[in-house]
Amino acid sequence: MRRKITVVGAGNVGATCAQELARRDYAEVVLVDIKEGLPQGKALDIDQAAAVLGYEATVRGSNGYGESAGSDVVVITAGLPRSPGMSRDDLVTTNEGIVRSVSEQVRDGSPDAILVVVSNPLDAMCHVAKDASGFAKERVVGMAGILDTARFSTFIAWETGASVKDVTAMVLGGHGDQMVPVVSHTAVGGVPLEQLVEPDRIEAMVERTRKGGGEIVQLLGTSAWYAPGAAAAQMVDSICLDQKRVLPCTAYLEGEYGIDGLYIGVPVKLGAAGVEEIVELQLSDEEQRRLEESADAVREVVGVLTSAG
C-alpha cells in the first residue's frame, strides 16, 4: 500500500516538494492550500507530467484537511515568503498564526503523522508546530540544514572544480545569518577542505552560504523553491522509507551540544520514528562558540512568539 504524504501550502516550495515526491512513486500526495483552485490546478499539472516522466498520477489538491487524514508525514510550507529587505525573523508574527492553525488541523486528522516544518522563521515555527500539535519532539523536525548544506556544497564544488557528489559538508545552527558551516567536518573526496582551499576563500564561501537565501531573494524578489522543495522531499524519503540517513535538520535539543529546550540545526538520524538520534560532532572551540551565538539568536526570535510552549 502506498504511503500518504500531505504537503500544506501549494506555493512554489510546496508544489516543488509535491512534484519531487510524486516522482519518487512510493506515495499518494495530498496538496493542501486555502486558495481555491490553486492546489487542484497544481496537482492536476503534476499528475499530467506523470505520463511523460513515468510515475503514477497520485497527487490530489484540496482546500481542506479531509483528504489528508491518516497521513504518515505532513510537510508544512504554508506562510508568507520573504521579500527583499526582509529577514526570516521578520515573518515570525505573521506566520505563527498560520503554522499554529495548520498544526492543530493536522493533529486532528493525522494524529500519528511526523511533521516536517519548512515555514520561516524555521526554528521558531518548529516550536509553534510542536506546541500546537502536542506531538513528541521526535515527530516535529525542521528543514533547513539540508538546504544550507546544499548551498555550501555547491560553492565548494565550484571553488574546487570537483563534483558536488564528492563534497561532504555540514551546516549547523539556526536557519539565518548566524548559521555555522562546520569547516572542520567538510571534505572533498575525503580530503579536508582546509587542505584544498585557502582560508580567505573558505571564509568567503562560508559568508555566501550564510547569506544564501537572501542572495536569491534579492535576485528573484521572493524566496527560493527548487532547492528547498528538494530538501524537504529528501527528509520525507528518509522517514517514509526508514532510510535512517544522517542529515542536518532542525531538532529539539535537551542538553546536546550544551543547548537545552531549543530547536536548532544539528545532524540527526532520520527514520520511521522521526528524529531517532541526535549526532554530536566534535566541534572546534570556535565552531562551538558560533553555535552558541546562533542558539542565542534563535532564542531571541522564539521569545517573540505569543504562545510558545
What oligomeric state best describes the polypeptide chains here? single chain
What is the succession of H and E elements? EHEHEEHEHEHEEEEEHHHHEEEH
Largest sheet, described in full?
6 strands, parallel
Query: Could you list the spans in which at least 5 consecutive residues all have pLDDT below 50?
Result: none
**Strand-residue fraction?**
15-25%
- Rounded to an integer, what's the Rg over CA atoms? 19 Å
Work out the number of β strands. 14
Strand order of the largest sheet: 3-2-1-4-5-6
Roughly how much helix do the residues carry, as a percent range? 40-55%
Contiguous helical run count: 10
State mean pLDDT (0 to 100 scale).
95
Structural class, by secondary structure, is alpha/beta
The 3D shape can be described as globular
Q: End-to-end distance, in Å?
A: 37 Å
